[in-house]
Amino acid sequence: MGSGLSFDVAHLLAGSLVLVSFMLLYQDRMYALLNIFALHALVLALSVAWQAYVQDAPHLFVTAAIALIFKAIVIPVALRRIVERLGIHREIETVGGVGLTMLAGMALVGLSMVVMLRVTGDADPLAREDLAFALSVVLLGLLMMVTRRNAVSQVIGFMSLENGLILAATGAKGMPLVVEISVAFSILIAFIVIGIFLFRIRERFDTVDVRALDDFRGERQ
Amino acid sequence: MTILLLSVVGLLVLGLVSIPAGHSPRMSAIVYGLSAAITAVLLAHALAHLVSGSGPVSQTMPLGLPWIGVHFRLDALSALFLAIVAAGGLAASVYGIGYGRHEESPGRVLPFFPAFLAGMVLVVLADDAFTFLVSWEFMSLASWALVMAHHREADNARSGYVYLIMAAFGTFCLLLAFGLLAGAQGSYAFSAMRGEALTPVTAGLVLALALVGAGSKAGLVPLHVWLPLAHPAAPSHVSALMSGVMTKVAIYAFIRIIFDLAGPIEWWWSVPLLVVGACTAVLGVLYATMQEDMKRVLAYSTIENIGMIFVGLGLALAFAANGFAAAAALAMTAALFHAINHSLFKSLLFFGAGAVLRATGERRMDALGGLIHRMPRTGIVFLVGCVAISALPPLNGFASEWLMLQAILQSPDLPEWVLKLSIPAVGAMLALATALAAACFVRIYGIVFLGRPRTAEAAAAREVDGYALTAMFALGGLCLAAGVLPGFVIDGLAPVVSGLVGARMPTQAGMEWLSIMPVAESRSSYNGLLGFLFIVFSASMAAFVIHRFASRAIRRAPAWDCGFPDPRPAAQYGASSFAQPIRRVFAAAIGAKETVDMPLPGDLRPARFSSVIRDRVWDLLYQPVVTGVAAAADRLNRFQFLTIRRYLSLVFVVLVGLLMVLALWQ
Lengths: 221, 666
What we know:
The complex is a heterodimer of chains A (about 220) and B (about 675). Chain A is mainly α and about 220 residues long. Helix content of chain A is about 80%, strand content about 0%. The longest helix of chain A has 29 residues, at about 60-85. Chain B has 26 helices and four strands. In chain B, helix 11 (about 235-260) runs antiparallel to helix 14. Chain B starts with a helix and ends with a helix.
């Protein structure tokens, strides 16, 4: 197999991840958001698996498996149950319109392309593209956290941001497995803590809209 | 070298061990005894290295930063300052055996005392920037903890706070200086820095940073503000260490950076040193003369002496840059000799102040008086310290300041007109500072030890314990020995001086009658021994004549009462009355203000006189910074209360902004 094909496939998968990030940006229904997030994690798992195959690095398969099992299955299912128990199937609101958010997202992707392609001028082309896409995914995740008010969708934004980090790390050859495992565990623990907090917030304020917290603190909006 | 490092480890372990054991008086005596033993070993080792004249010893340990390690080196310069640190530490430890027994919170002093000593020893042994800065910061933090030992007393918390900020600022400047010295390769070992060639601009920056960084620890004006707050706040034996020894470690840092690491020196470097040193000397002693608190007088007087030492270093720079090796050696010898002397008599005086504080519970001079009857031994040895610091022959202060003035007399040979004109002015300022220092110590001795007790506590004072007296008399003896036989000290300093300026003073040991001749017999010579013998002989003759031939009949007569026959001790000449003429003359320089509140005729309230002294430097330099920081903090306070999403948005905006910068750069 030539390096051309491996490059193209890696490129395709990383690009798809950016695309799915865009889909996350405009999803304004809970279940749809969770489904897209599962898709996001699935694409990440595929991308990592492809990297493992191309780089001939078996430990990356473990990373892919972790991504698949935890992020594509366990966390979406758990979040779905949380959403059901909280009873928030209603439409979620975004700050600013969908169009504006998408435009901002495009600008961010453009920015990360310009920065990464310039900074990593003499690196391996595969790693270059990979890093540029990864930075886009990270920025889009951050944008999502900023534009959402609902705590659950902020959690999803955070998780997609972390997916971007994993993509960057696998693209740069030679990430130790122990780093990946510790990151996975920290995400899991963050998920548990956030899940518990969601219920606590809900118990106290009857909503998971973080505006209620701000009102309670007596701050400006 | 191994012995030295083991001693440091011993001190650190001693500090750790005394954490649980620090509450019984017996343990405190054991801890101080052990630290005295360790510092004695250090002192012996340093002196042996200095006297034997053996070459530098170095050692690298695989500690600290990976691949860099920790470098230690003992050369003549570090051996000299190690000896100063160890001698001060030994005296303070011996003093502490007795003094520490009455410490009210030994758990706050004992663990940090050996750690502080260990930090100072490590600073003088360090041979790379990383080790140096870590040890320096360790020394600062340990001394800060000691300043905060009595943290519930009024103003001590503020003193500690100011000290902490100034110490951090100083370390920051030294960090930058080492960063410039390391050059593009970023090699932190001193041996690599020596080979680095600096551009004139970089070298000037290194000088400025070293002057600010080391000068803030040493107490140069205008960076001195923390010193009179922090040094008196610590327990007295620690005050002695901070004033007598830690300021010398700062001078060591300056000498190491400028004379050893910074490469070829230029003549204009001496100008800032001379100006800052002379101003420091005069302002320090002026403020010292105005203080009401014994320990604060001593702390301000430290500032004065540091100024003198820096003037000596500036002279050495000026002469060395112009190739006058002999004069440079003379100036450098004077500076180092004065550093040794100051560490001796300032420790002695702080011990004396501690003894008075213990005996009476008072530091205010106006609450003391007549202590020479209650504490005769402390009184005598404190007098020795006062005479030494006032630069009176035959004690050591005179010898070093005389050498300093001899160096100043060499200045007309210099080719630069700036130096030709400014050095005599600096010399005049030094002479003024010395004269004022004499007034200052006449004042402190006269008010505290002479006259009648002003309070009941002063009247009930009792002599301190034997350990404290031993430490004080040992230091007093060293002051006398160094003053009477200065030739041996000068010869002992020769290897250090020749390592720094490439020449040494002529050998003094072989001179007739043990006199010293810095340049040539036709120019000047001084014989401390003959002076001492003459003073002893004439004084004993006078005493003998008076006792032998004077009338033994007792006459009773009314006491001279100044037209004011009030028998209360408060009517004596007091501390502020003594300072008043000097305060009036120098009112503009020190920001002194007197106000008289005179009632109208017929009004029955008493007239009031008040005099305020404000540190101008604080008002002009520090107050704007304090106000600015407070205002900025008020403005930024809003950011404490944003919503979670706004914080996220801030992070996001900053991240995007930085990426934009990266994208638009180039």
